[in-house]
Write a structure and sequence with these properties.
The protein is mostly helical. It folds into two domains: 276 residues, no CATH class; 119 residues, no CATH class. 61% of the residues lie in helices and 4% in strands. It has a two-stranded antiparallel sheet. A two-stranded antiparallel sheet has the order 3-4. Strands 5-6 form a two-stranded antiparallel ribbon. Helix 8 runs parallel beside helix 11 and helix 8 runs parallel beside helix 12. The radius of gyration is 22 Å and the shape is globular. The relative contact order is 0.11.
Length: 428
């Protein structure tokens, strides 16, 4: 077999498929969009019951509002322009299969100020001009429908253009030859239009910041209805704003994540970035508009402490991992104990990564619980995120486990013996 044929064979071989293979690739793009629409409807309904049968689904005419489509496209265009602004530094991603590194506009504090703060200033101006930001509550359903439609269209574009990409630019897991699965998982690893990286842009910009804007719209709707925002609404908005601000402030860390390094850019990530994140991660704020909750100062303080502990674990462990991957000789990580692998890389077995194999997931889940607690215990809907996220992270951890065992072999087995707990110390 020639070298070119061998490479092609390796790239297109039928590897172990994620998310249920072809069946999952057919069902997930159908059921997840329906789930988003269902959850938005339920969160705005008086009953807020996810167990209602038949399920509460909106009539078709409620899904379309031209204002929603124009708002969404304008929002994406705004952040596309901000992405292209020549500020900040340029950082290199991890080494690709062909030995090259892609360059990314990592703006750090400039990006934080430019994206999040520019969005905030524009929203404040709209408020001063009397714009009814509370109308986001009524537009939430058509906004979600528009985001779903844009996700499908972008995914089709990405799948078609991937056939013009060179072999080394394809994701190993997304080039199986099965069009349904490849469309879902993503064929091309880092699709770009010139220097504009589509995956990196969608990962951090329109959907993530849009989540904050939707939350603000829910807060303004509560002000319209009750004269002032509740303590529960303020906590939810503040916690989730901190989470998004942290992601933008530390945006360079995303370059070492599984999404950027391993997964192709197909429907799975496109839909997740543009529709799933902004419209399901903030269900607590939508729920509180129609189901106000009273919080005592003591309960609020306890929830704030829980979120603070989760954030501390999340940020410290992620920073340690990112620093070690980029420069293992840096003073902040140079003294940590490691295990050598056959690939030449080393595995951390002390610090945060000696506590559990995924301390960042532990911090993430503690924060997720803190976001839901302000909504009380009478409904399960506000806890959808923490339930879903627990399942997602356990599944993601299993994916990472398979990849690391295949990559590091005996060294990974040694690491697992040294660090037996995956996410929850002494539990899992």
């Amino acid at each position: 077999m020639s070298a070119n044929k061998a490479q092609k064979h390796r790239l297109s071989h039928d590897t172990e498929r994620e998310f249920g293979g072809t069946l999952g690739a057919v069902c997930i793009p159908i059921f997840l969009p329906l789930t988003v629409l269902f959850l938005v409807c339920v969160s705005q309904s008086p009953e807020a019951s996810v167990l209602q049968w038949p399920p509460l689904l909106p009539p078709a005419h409620q899904l379309w509002d031209p204002r929603a489509l124009w708002l969404l496209l304008g929002w994406i265009a705004l952040h596309g322009v901000l992405y292209l602004m020549p500020f900040g530094e340029v950082s290199e991603g991890l080494v690709l299969r062909d030995g090259t590194r892609l360059k990314y506009p990592i703006n750090g504090i400039v990006g934080f100020l430019l994206c999040l703060c520019t969005s905030g200033v524009l929203l404040m101006l709209l408020l001063l001009l009397g714009a009814p930001l509370g109308d986001v509550f009524e537009l939430l359903l058509p906004l979600a429908a528009a985001a779903i439609a844009v996700s499908f269209l972008l995914s089709v574009y990405l799948y078609v253009r991937s056939f013009w990409a060179p072999p080394h630019a394809l994701a190993l897991g997304g080039n199986t030859g099965n069009p349904l699965y490849d469309f879902f998982i993503g064929r091309e690893l880092n699709p770009r239009i010139g220097s504009f990286d589509l995956k990196y842009f969608c990962e951090l910009r329109p959907g993530l910041i849009g989540w904050v804007v939707i939350n603000l719209g829910m807060l303004m709707k509560e002000v319209e209805l009750r004269g002032s925002p509740s303590l529960a609404m303020i906590l939810v908005n503040s916690f989730q704003l901190l989470y998004v601000a942290d992601a933008l402030w530390n945006e360079e860390a995303v370059l070492t994540t599984m999404d950027i390094v391993h997964d192709g850019f197909g429907f799975m990530l496109v839909f997740g970035d543009l529709a799933w994140v902004p419209f399901t991660y903030g269900l607590q704020a939508t729920f509180l508009v129609t189901h106000p909750q009273a919080l005592t100062a003591l309960k609020a303080a306890a929830i704030i402490v829980l979120n603070g502990v989760g954030y501390y674990i999340f940020r410290k462990s992620n920073s340690q991992k990112n620093q070690f991957r980029r420069d293992p000789t840096h003073p902040s990580v140079a003294g940590l104990e490691t295990i050598a692998t056959a690939t030449g890389k080393r595995l951390l077995v002390s610090g945060w990564w000696g506590l559990v194999r995924h301390p960042n997931y532990l911090g993430d889940l503690l924060m997720a619980l803190a976001w839901s607690l302000p909504c009380g215990f009478l409904h399960i809907l506000p806890y959808f995120y923490v339930i879903y996220f627990t399942v997602l992270l356990i599944h993601r951890e299993a994916r990472d486990e398979r990849q690391c065992r295949a990559k590091y072999g005996l060294a990974w087995d040694t690491y697992c013996r040294r660090v037996p707990y995956r996410i929850f110390p002494y539990i899992y």
